[in-house]
Amino acid sequence: xxxxxxxxxxxxxxxxxxxxxxxxxxxxxxxxxxxxxxxxxxxxxxxxxxxxxxxxxxxxxxxxxxxxxxxxxxxxxxxxxxxxxxxxxxxxxxxxxxxxxxxxxxxxxxxxxxxxxxxxxxxxxxxxxxxxxxxxxxxxxxxxxxxxxxxxxxxxxxxxxxxxxxxxxxxxxxxxxxxxxxxxxxxxxxxxxxxxxxxxxxxxxxxxxxxxxxxxxxxxxxxxxxxxxxxxxxxxxxxxxxxxxxxxxxxxxxxxxxxxxxxxxxxxxxxxxxxxxxxxxxxxxxxxxxxxxxxxxxxxxxxxxxxxxxxxxxxxxxxxxxxxxxxxxxxxxxxxxxxxxxxxxxxxxxxxxxxxxxxxxxxxxxxxxxxxxxxxxxxxxxxxxxxxxxxxxxxxxxxxxxxxxxxxxxxxxxxxx
Length: 417
Known about the structure:
Blueprint: H1 2-13, H2 16-54, E1 58-61, H3 70-75, H4 97-105, E2 110-125, E3 128-137, H5 139-145, E4 152-155, H6 157-162, E5 166-170, H7 171-177, E6 184-188, E7 194-203, H8 208-211, E8 215-218, H9 219-226, E9 235-240, H10 246-257, E10 261-263, H11 264-267, H12 269-307, H13 309-317, H14 322-355, H15 379-405, H16 409-413
Parallel strand pairs: 3-8, 5-7
Antiparallel strand pairs: 1-9, 1-10, 2-3, 2-6, 2-9, 4-7, 5-8, 6-7
Helix pairs in contact: 1-14, 2-12, 2-14, 2-15, 12-14, 12-15, 14-15
């Protein structure tokens, strides 16, 4: 095998220009694949990280799950269900709050359970009005469940924790209202309740949807605004030992408590699916770049087989079998794949380092907002690029190898072909 490898290398070195073109095409395809994997994986991970940092792992909602399944209805079985209709003026809430909190905190895998109250309100600052969701939380618990206390860009979380009339506002919402730090915001609740809050902190999470709508206040003030009693909450928010257990815990806890429970994955499923779909489309397009590189390798090897016919005939006359000749061309394809991938590794690593330093601003409409692109970097990116390059180059060398192996040495040496 080593003798065949030396012959394959010598033939490639004998045509440096064509070999260089093939190497560059494989290197560009490998580098593009590595950078694309880094970018798409980094964006997906960035979204998941920000979603976990700004929300609870599991939320217990103030509504009961549907007990009647569609499957049973399709089977035509007689079903009888007695249900109490929701009274329009009745607030949907988790109650009794003390009991639900106790049962949730005792559930396996739950580190912390904290109530929150939500009220759809109209916020007013001067002549500016904006509809927004006012969320009441326990400041200490919120700092443990999320990292919003670390995302404060103006003011302080400590001031929010001390003052019952304080509010934390997302940077996008503050900009829309024109309210500065220390400004007085008025909130009109759905029942006509009018409360005044002082903005003591502005936060920027990097998620546009959160930054444009976030307003936090203390639990008691939001309960008043929402018309809830002290033993009622809109939600109970849970922090788990592991966020990846959230779907299983939410399902089990729903059976335990009798309230609808949603994991962070359920709430972000649409965005995650959108990222995955975009990533798939991008990776497929980059894969075609590797296919183009494969055509370049095939072209070089076809020309090599045509121009080295006499050399092939001499090798056959010296005792090399058809299989040996075919193996030489397969080794040439694999050499181009390995060397091209190595160059692609260097180019991909350099591009990742360069792209992550470039400042970006996709505007306020972007789902994610960062000063720089988050580029992921894992060894499997490079291994996948190598494997794909080897497969493409090996497939590209099959036809030239078959063609070279089928040449008749006596006819070539006599000048008949």
